[in-house]
Design a protein that fits this description.
Two copies of one chain form a homodimer. Chain A has 240 residues and is of the alpha/beta class. Chain A has ten helices and five strands. In chain A, β3, α4 and β4 form a beta-alpha-beta unit. Chains A, B: Belongs to the 'GDSL' lipolytic enzyme family. Chains A, B: This is SGNH hydrolase-type esterase domain-containing protein.
Chain lengths: 240, 240
Amino acid sequence: MRRKIFLFGDSITEESFSDGGWGASLADLLRRKADIMVRGYSGYNTRWALKVVERVFPAAEENGEESPAAVTVFFGANDACLPERCSGFQHVPLDEYKQNLRSIISFLKNRWPHTVIILITPPPIDEEARLQYPYTENKTGFPERTNEAAGSYAKACLTVAKECQISSIDLWSKMQQIPNWQTECLWDGLHLSRGGNKVVFEEVAKKLKEEGIGAEDLAVDLPLIEHVDPKDPLKTFYEF
Amino acid sequence: MRRKIFLFGDSITEESFSDGGWGASLADLLRRKADIMVRGYSGYNTRWALKVVERVFPAAEENGEESPAAVTVFFGANDACLPERCSGFQHVPLDEYKQNLRSIISFLKNRWPHTVIILITPPPIDEEARLQYPYTENKTGFPERTNEAAGSYAKACLTVAKECQISSIDLWSKMQQIPNWQTECLWDGLHLSRGGNKVVFEEVAKKLKEEGIGAEDLAVDLPLIEHVDPKDPLKTFYEF
């Protein structure tokens, strides 16, 4: 009756139902039309994501259930942690990142050939804010992530999307076009502020529309109140 | 892997993923633990809800899938429209309202014997605001809903919950304990403001906790980053 849209990613996806979050905004936009299923895993990189992808999208989903309308794949912020710095255990080399993305896409395409896949690049990094908001004590004076590294992963992500002929959102570039993106889009140099959530929401909504699964394209679940005849309301439900 | 919680109701449920909405807040509270499935149908009363309940909760859900952890049932605001006023076609007599609620509960209990059902009463009505924000032209000078009528339906709802030995939230009384509830909890005399959404969220969260399915009780989907060994991250995923 309703389509499903899965959001697969790291903390930026896991937190997407917080106040003003991009996931909640999508759920509101597609109310009565699609269920937004959050599959965000804080701290995860593509290496770990690949290890768990079969558990995240269990085979039961394909039995009897309609395939999801779309899946967003939003990883790279953790892969791009610098290997020698304080979050080095999350680092994944650039080539492996690309390979992991390809494998995740291939898994999804194999499971659901008609599902739209949207690859989202990591956001830009505000290094100063990262020093102000470290996850663990960081006395080194160097941030665990740099904007340059995030940019390389963003470019790699776009390359893979092109190769695999799927949709992509260049969040890294898009955000940096916004004046004061460091504080306008991010709150700790990495995670999304209300403004940043708005950017992601708008970009994903735009892509869904481009792919023919926007708010206007999806069927409404059960008759809308404006289609109920005030003179004989139950008729609507008998005919239905 | 994750439990499901269904929110079944009218517009106050359909809109629960708007900015600051109670549904989105629940999804955020139970992140990594439960999928919040919105099944809100704007304008619906219990008579129409009963006509569609089998479509809202299709039998497929019980095949293979685990039963949901909980279902909130949140109707009455439309049933309580006065019969001779401008939204009279949504009115359902008090006795039928009770009977319809009993039938919905019986349907849910039959489908999922172990699922927690939480009945929520309609909110109070600010009649002055209803005249300011009519849905359709209303030249009568009388609001289509009164707080007194909403109160009768709220009491009936609590009676049914007690009879059926299920959980309930007396939103009608709870909100009226809040100073300036008319504007603090509602924006158009009926639908929830940010403050009203907070009340519903907190009450539902409290009930879920009382029923043993709160944030602390539900299992986490996949290992948390703090349980990943930084010295050998993949170990976590192999063992898992």
